[in-house]
Each structure stands twice: as C-alpha cells, then as structure tokens.
Design brief:
- The strands form 2 sheets. The protein has a 6-stranded mixed sheet, sandwiched between helices. A two-stranded antiparallel sheet has the order 7-8.
- 35% of the residues lie in helices and 9% in strands.
- The chain is an alpha/beta fold.
Length: 348
C-alpha cells in the first residue's frame, strides 16, 4: 500500500517484502535524476541523514578526526550542501529506505529538503501504518501493489533532470557599452558579430558587468586540461563551494585571491564561462568552464542562491574566511592537482 501526499509518497510494507527494497535500489540512477538513500543504521550524528543523502548523490566526506569536512557535521551546513547538489544535479525523485527507523526530527529534515529542492519524495515504511508520525499520517490518498510501485519509480519527477540556471539580474548601468569601451571597441560603429570576432581571448572588461554581458564581446580563455583522475577526485567532494572553488583553481591555475570577488553575476547562465577579478579590477578575464567542472560550479551557484544572497555577493566568500582553512586542507589532500595556495593568497 502507498499513501500519496502531493509530492510525498509513503509506501507501507508491513511484511518487509524484499521486492520493494530491490526495486528501490535498482531505481537509483543519479544521471536520470533519481536517487535511493539508505539511512545509516543507528547513525548518532545529528547530520547523519544529510550525510547519507550526500553519499547517495555521489559525494564523499573526507575521513578522520581532523577532516576538512568537519564543518559538515553541522546539521544546517550538511543539509544545505545536500540541497545544493540536489538542485545542481537535477534530482527529481528521492526514495528513502527503512524510513520507519527515522526520528521525527529527521523526517522533518527530509520534508524541508524536499521543499527547498522541489523533488519528489518516496519513503519506504516497513512497519504498520499505525506508527506513522502525525506529519505523515494526516494525509491520505492511497495506491497499492507492486505494479503501482514500479510505475511510481518510473514516473518523471516534478522538475527537469538537467535544470537551467538563469543568469542573475544584471546590475544597473550601460553594461554593454562599458564592456566595449574596456575592450577598446566602439559599439556604435561596429555590429556585434564584428566586435566579437575582433577580440582576443581573456581581454579585461569593466568590473561592473556580468559574465553574460562580457561573453558577448570577449572570447573566454580556454580551460587548462587536467587528468581525468583529478577531475573525478574533485567531483566527489562533499561541499559545493569547496568543489566549485578548487575546480576553478584547477582549470585556470589562478591564485586563490582571484576567487575573492567572484559573484553569481560572474557565472554565465549555462555555467560555460566564469569571470575572475584581479587587483583593482584592472584585469578581469573571462575563462571557459570545461564540461567536467560545470556541475561543480552549478553546485556552488545553487548553494549561493539557497542562502538567499544577492547576485552581487561573493559566491566563494564562506570558504575564504579563516585563511581558507577548509579549502587549503582539501587542496592538500589532492596534491596531483598542483594547486598553489600561498599564505597571503587571500589578497589578489
């Protein structure tokens, strides 16, 4: 039997039928926007379920008592990271096994996560429905049977599998003219196609213009290549801001301080280019984002937007405090990336 509550479904499996567990595990296909979460038995950490969610999303927390991921022991930080990855990866449907073992608090966390991501949530309740908590028990449309459960798993979710990140609202002012003037062009005299073709990669643009406006006139600097193993190591980092920041350092080989002023506005809507800023904004090059890094920067942007920051705020600011301790620690664990993070690098 399954009780469908809008976008929340409770599948009641009193007999603990192995069929439902197998079907849920086989439905785990992150590339198709559907994941299956297996809660850690007797997980005592307040953030344990958020960590299980991150694991299902393909993310791995660094182990050890001095782990650079220790700040994800915070419930709010861990669930925010899980929500950002869920949005960036286009997760549409989350199935949670053995939900009857979860506390009321963790069920509330799951429901809050669903609200922030817009994903569909299915809970396998392998106990009598009389034990359902009030937050779930008071909702009551029913479906039942194996066929219905399989059909539920096969349904497309409520959001696209690959969401588009629309560009942030442009800042006030004649942005297009400012870009052209900074690039040494005359927008009144040249058509857009001619102006674009005449520019060299990476030429500076006005600091108040967005990456989208800059990309209309300036060719992006090509991304530096890194080994596939290095890209894979970055892809599994649990915190979106750390994964995004280290990926930028890897494919640009700029200094850490170049991330200090990177705004939401500095990432194009399709996450194909990012604009970085130099000292006094005298040199603000546009860099192409390689395909492997786009999901990581999408995660960083989603994290930024879920915290309701305005588009002018620095995306990576939270990981650049305290001498970027967490960022440096992760970079130290990935020596093959050859990231140079000197002590004074927070000042570009």
């Amino acid at each position: 039997m399954a009780l469908v509550y809008g976008e929340v479904t409770i599948v009641v499996d009193e007999q603990d039928d192995l069929f439902y567990t197998r079907a849920a595990l086989q439905a785990h296909r992150p590339g198709e926007g559907r994941i299956t979460v297996q809660p850690t038995p007797a997980g005592g950490s307040p953030a344990a379920l958020a960590h299980d969610m991150l694991y299902a999303l393909g993310k791995r927390l660094a182990p050890g008592p001095n782990s650079p991921d220790v700040w994800l022991d915070s419930v709010n930080a861990a669930w925010l990271a899980a929500a950002a990855w869920g949005v960036a990866m286009g997760v549409r449907h989350v199935v949670v096994l053995r939900a009857h073992l979860l506390t009321i608090r963790r069920i509330d966390q799951l429901l809050a996560w669903r609200e922030s991501t817009g994903a569909q949530l299915t809970l396998l309740w392998q106990k009598t429905p009389r034990r359902l908590p009030p937050a779930l028990a008071r909702m009551g449309r029913h479906i039942s049977g194996r066929d219905q459960f399989e059909a539920l798993l096969a349904e497309p979710g409520p959001i696209p599998a690959r969401p588009s990140f629309p560009p942030a609202p442009p800042m006030a002012g004649p942005a297009t003219v400012a870009v052209a003037v900074a690039a040494g062009q005359s927008p009144a005299q040249q058509p857009r196609e001619t102006r674009t073709a005449s520019l060299r990669p990476g030429r500076p643009a006005h600091p108040c213009t967005s990456a989208m406006a800059t990309a209309q006139l300036v060719h992006a600097v090509p991304a530096l290549e890194i080994a596939s193993e290095e890209a894979a190591a970055l892809a599994v980092l649990a915190h979106p801001l750390i994964a995004g920041a280290l990926s930028v350092l890897a494919f640009t080989q700029v200094g850490l301080g170049s991330l200090r002023f990177t705004r939401d506005l500095d990432i194009t809507g399709d996450v194909s280019a990012i604009k970085l800023h130099g000292v006094g904004h005298r040199h603000c090059p546009l860099h192409a984002v390689p395909a492997w890094a786009r999901p990581l920067l999408a995660g960083a942007r989603a994290h930024h937007r879920l915290t309701a920051h305005p588009p002018e705020d620095g995306v990576f600011t939270p990981v650049l405090v305290a001498e970027a301790r967490h960022l440096r620690a992760h970079a130290g664990r990935l020596p093959r990336l050859d990231l140079s993070l000197p002590a004074g690098a927070l000042v570009p």
